[in-house]
Design a protein that fits this description.
Layout: H1 2-17, H2 22-42, E1 44-55, H3 62-67, E2 74-83, E3 86-96, E4 102-115, E5 122-134, E6 143-154, E7 157-164, E8 173-181
Antiparallel strand pairs: 1-2, 1-8, 2-3, 3-4, 4-5, 5-6, 6-7, 7-8
Length: about 180
């Protein structure tokens, strides 16, 4: 299982790096390892509250929409570290999925933040997460989860979102959550 995760992570790196040079990949993993370790060592706590799981109405038929849960009751916690305005995070979160089963996610996330006001209270961020999820229909086997993230932050409160791509009646979900840095 761990090897499959490593291969999926490597493929993600290759796709995002745009080239397959060994030095680029090595540098990326070295930097990622350093960011994760530094966030673990220096990060401060945060709390996450899942808000909504929206199934894209353009990719789902009414039968599926009617049976799916879009209120993901749950809770998460993580570590927050800022490097300038940019955010690094480690997280673990559990919530009710679309079928009312427990789903977990854990991983590392990075946001490039841009201040929206002179006081730098408001920020818009965009970035990615490299994580793992576990779902009922996959017997809770860890599944790699490289996803984009966007966030709107006011001081220590952040509204976050990611889009899980998919096919007809599967995936294509916008997941939103609130993060409060403590």
């Amino acid at each position: 299982m761990l090897n499959k995760f490593r291969y999926a992570l490597l493929l993600t790196v290759l796709l995002t790096a745009g080239r397959a040079e060994a030095g680029v990949i090595s540098d990326y993993f070295s930097g990622l390892k350093q960011d994760v370790r530094q966030t673990w060592d220096e990060g401060s706590w945060n709390v996450m509250l899942p808000l909504r799981v929206w199934h894209n109405r353009l990719t789902y038929d009414d039968e599926h929409i009617d049976k799916y849960n879009e209120e993901p009751w749950g809770l998460g916690a993580g570590l927050t570290r800022y490097e300038g305005e940019n955010w690094h995070g480690l997280y673990a979160i559990a919530f009710k999925d679309s079928n009312d089963y427990m789903q977990t996610m854990f991983g590392y996330a990075y946001l490039i933040n841009k201040a929206l006001d002179e006081e730098k209270d408001w920020h818009f961020g965009y970035g990615y997460t490299l994580g793992v999820t576990q779902r009922h229909e996959y017997s809770y086997i860890p599944i790699p989860l490289p996803l984009p993230i966007a966030a709107l932050t006011y001081k220590k409160v952040s509204l976050n979102a990611t889009y899980v791509p998919g096919v007809k009646n599967d995936g294509n979900v916008l997941f939103t959550w609130l993060r409060v840095d403590l």
